[in-house]
Amino acid sequence: MSQDTLLITGASGQLGQLVLKHIASKTGAKVIAASRDPSKLNTKFETRAADFDKPETLPTAFAGVDRLLLISTDALAVPGQRLKQHQAAIAAAKAAGVKHIVYTSLPNPEPGNLISFAPDHYGTEQAIINSGLDYTLLRNNWYAENTLMALPHAIQTGQWYTSTNGGKIGYITREDAALASASALANPPAPKATFTITGAKALSHADVAALVTEVTGKPLSVVDVSDADFKAGLIAAGLPDFVADMLTSAEAAIRAGQLSAVTTDVQTLMGKAPTTFHDFLTTAKGALLA
User: Fold this and answer.
1) Per-residue pLDDT reduced to its tens digit, 210-222
2) Residue 144 near residue 277 (C-beta atoms within 8 A)
3) Number of domains the chain contains
4) What is the extent of the structural domain holding 188?
5) Using an 8 Å Cβ cutoff, are 5 and 28 in contact?
6) Residue 31: its pLDDT value, please?
7) For the chain, which residues score pLDDT lower than 70?
8) How far apart are the C-alpha atoms of 15 and 174, rounded to whole Å?
9) What is the C-alpha to C-alpha distance for residues 54 and 13, in angstroms, rounded to an integer?
10) Which residues does the UniProt record annotate as the domain NAD(P)-binding (predicted)?
């Protein structure tokens, strides 16, 4: 298996760069880093151009590849574009002879999930399953790093606005998700498997606020608002409508308990316990107080 060739898509992105950081410690296989713009890749590995909006680039990108890590793209502004990109990548991978796809998905993406981009993940999972290829689906929970979009300002004002109404999230750090991805790509645990990647404990906004105060010494209270008021606040802060809609849909999903599941899957893949949220905040203290 060490002679296999592995390819990581989206390798210049935040998750992709972290996967590249960890993959060498997991395998002696040949590793290829792929990106729309390979010039953005600063890596010791071979690089290739792979643009999912230009399917003609994909046969060359995927040539000779045995296992592929398909990192979900950031094409969220145009409904349906991301799913179309993923479907093009899956079709090209199968045509190129790729044997196994590892995909970064979302917990419970089936119909009924309230997150606006869940259908992209469900459609991609179905395309992979129906391709006949072996697969590993990594259903990554909400990244702990996502809280850094709101917490610095919330700490400054002492108030953190949310419409989650006590709903909990099984936060996972991006670093741990990357290590799990690298492990799954290097050594697939089964021909066909699905893992839900979470931290060890589900936390509400109030739980997180208490940890923030513990780490920073700054008081932080949670203010519950309606979805409409939450979205209005995002728009007032200058976020595009589609981003405000997306984040508001995530609040609704959290409120409904759709991101509250906790599993030991990440520990199974990484071989160690996931980072605690307290430790994440301690590491991110500088960013929190910026």
Assistant:
1) 999 999 999 999 9
2) yes
3) 1
4) 5-140+174-197+261-271
5) no
6) 97
7) 1-2
8) 6
9) 18
10) 10-188
